[in-house]
Write a structure and sequence with these properties.
Blueprint lengths: L9 E3 L6 E3 L2 H16 L7 E11 L2 E13 L2 E8 L8 H8 L9 E5 L4 E5 L5 E4 L7 H9 L8 H17 L9 E2 L1
Parallel strand pairs: 5-6
Antiparallel strand pairs: 1-2, 3-4, 4-5, 4-9, 6-7, 7-8
Helix pairs in contact: 2-4
């Protein structure tokens, strides 16, 4: 057993080629990685997996992994955060994380449980599409980026967004969750 996940063996990560623990959650992440590369047209070099997002609330700090951070034209253009269960309950936390990964608003924020997805506008926070098939392709994302302002996130707002991520991902996590690193 590894943390709170049943480890079924090992598998090779679709994006990085690294060997990782084979868990039910990791199988969904691999499914998403294959979707991005094989169906949505992203180059593996555009995708960073398990992005180590540092968040804090007061004196408390932690590293929370963001499943997929997509870069296009030199900017973070989309993030995908996987979590089992309800999508709606993960909207606010994932939006907060999107505002911390690069210092600017991210155009597209995807919340997914591996079977369904909500695609959020990173500026307005509105759900603009639903379903895995609705995740923007590389071409669609480039078009969406064209009219996006990439507004800089102020230090005060970043502090508040960081507290939100900490609250949802660290304070509300299972004590045996070994994907989060409290520092």
């Amino acid at each position: 057993m590894n943390g709170h996940h049943l480890v079924l063996g090992e598998l090779v990560d679709t994006i990085t080629g690294e060997t990782v623990a084979d868990t039910h959650d990791e199988r969904y992440r691999q499914k998403l990685g294959r979707l991005l590369v094989e169906q949505k047209g992203y180059d593996r070099s555009q995708i960073e997996t398990r992005f180590p997002l540092v968040c804090r609330a007061g004196d408390n700090r932690a590293i929370v992994p963001i499943d997929f951070v997509i870069t296009a034209a030199g900017k973070v253009a989309m993030i995908l955060k996987y979590g089992p269960g309800s999508l709606t309950t993960r909207h606010r936390c994932t939006l907060a994380a999107s505002r911390l990964v690069s210092g600017h608003l991210v155009p597209i924020v995807v919340v997914t449980n591996g079977e369904d997805a909500d695609i959020l506008d990173g500026a307005s926070s509105e759900v603009v599409r639903s379903g895995l098939a609705a995740i923007p392709s590389a071409v669609e994302l480039a078009e969406m980026m064209a009219g996006f302002g990439f507004e800089k996130i102020s230090a005060q707002r970043a502090e508040m967004e960081s507290r939100i991520v900490y609250c949802y991902e660290v304070d509300d996590s299972c004590p045996c969750d070994d994907t989060i690193c409290r520092i």
